[in-house]
Write a structure and sequence with these properties.
single chain; five-stranded antiparallel beta sheet; 13 strands
Amino acid sequence: MDMDWMNAPHSMGTTIIGVTYNGGVVLGADSRTSTGMYVANRASDKITQLTDNVYLCRSGSAADSQVVSDYVRYFLHQHIIQLGQPATVKVSANLIRLLSYNNKNMLETGLIVGGWDKYEGGSIYSVPLGGTILQLPFAIGGSGSSYLYGFLDQAWKEGMSKEEAEALVVKCVSLAIARDGASGGVVRTVVINSEGVTRNFYPGDKLPLWHEELPLRNSLLEDASSEAEPMHP
């Protein structure tokens, strides 16, 4: 039996997304972490807190994305102490860009930074492989993102409400889960605005079904036993 998968790196073949709305941002991600073809963790949390007002969506190598987030969280903590006020989303994103670019030959991770601050309100920054930084109204990443570009171009609109933005994020991640074998599990969202942060959780059986997906049903044995006529003496 081929056991090469046991030595494969942990990879978050992933769907991550960040969307701005009128007043804040919504971040979302699936929860499947893979080791080769083996699902190492089906309920991982790919949305990491950097500060009270800034969060990070992680894709690519799990180890690389975790060490980048740990370094940035440490630097931001020092920055906040020195300034005496919360770090901005732009500063957080630029720290991630600096680490990603300076170590681009060693890191295999794509990241989305989202948060709210008093200067720019809600904002989203994408830092893909190589350390480029892009401020965007919405950003997607991971293996499942290739199924979503056209849909998001059509579905995203400026001035969405919080409820509309979160529903769009859940819909996008569930669509990617339906098509991408490396995305799966549950959907986690983080809503960030001037009032604070709200985390939400959507289990797999509560997600919409798409395309050829079959609805959950009882086993054939249970169906047969329920349809059988009672025996009379």
